[in-house]
Amino acid sequence: MQPPHPKAVLRSEALARRRASRSVDPVAFAEHLASAGSSLVAELRPGIVSAYFSLRDEASTMPLLETLAASGVLTALPITGPRGTPLVFRLWRPGDALVEGKMGISEPSPAAAEVAPDLLFVPLAAFDRTGHRIGYGAGYYDRTLAALRARKKIFAVGVAYASQETQKIPHEDHDQRLDFVLTEEGLIDCRSVLPFP
């Protein structure tokens, strides 16, 4: 039997730490994310901002989306397509209709306009300070960030509990780096640790 892939081990360990992060109040973290995230958006001034629809013990992005939408920022959520494809994004703001998509994740209505976000708040399992991340294993965000970066300048902001930080994430050429990571302890500018090519 083959040993588990190093990324799979790191993913499992980081998610276990996230589940055990009882010292962090999830409501307070969601409020911090709304405040710090909207400040970052105000600084970078992207046209369209996407976030993810939170599941299980992921940090909630709903207060962030509410804050951004209330300030007039166009917001979007991802649509998960077939495995091996990038995500599609549709405009959505709190109060708009949602439908159940792949894996039971809530998504905007198919009637909502398709967009290409300029700043993405990205879920993750583990991260390091150079902006490398481990997702949930399907590669959706790596393909999505690569496709968007081939078209224009974007910003990718990982959202995680500080306990999900790992000293060094193994990475390959196709792995896409994050520009920033936002945790309950603050904002990490990954670009200043290791410049982007």
TrEMBL record:
ATP binds at K7, A8, V9, L10, R11, R133, I134, G135, Y136, G137, A138, G139, Y140, Y141. GO terms for molecular function: 5-formyltetrahydrofolate cyclo-ligase activity; ATP binding; metal ion binding. It catalyses: (6S)-5-formyl-5,6,7,8-tetrahydrofolate + ATP = (6R)-5,10-methenyltetrahydrofolate + ADP + phosphate. GO terms for biological process: folic acid-containing compound biosynthetic process; tetrahydrofolate interconversion. InterPro entries: FTHF_cligase, FTHF_cligase-like_sf, NagB/RpiA_transferase-like. Its cofactor is Mg(2+). It comes from the Bacteria. Its EC number is 6.3.3.2. Keywords: ATP-binding, Ligase, Magnesium, Metal-binding, Nucleotide-binding. Substrate binds at E58. Belongs to the 5-formyltetrahydrofolate cyclo-ligase family. PANTHER family: 5-FORMYLTETRAHYDROFOLATE CYCLO-LIGASE (PTHR23407:SF1), ATPASE INHIBITOR/5-FORMYLTETRAHYDROFOLATE CYCLO-LIGASE (PTHR23407). This is 5-formyltetrahydrofolate cyclo-ligase. It comes from Methylocella tundrae.
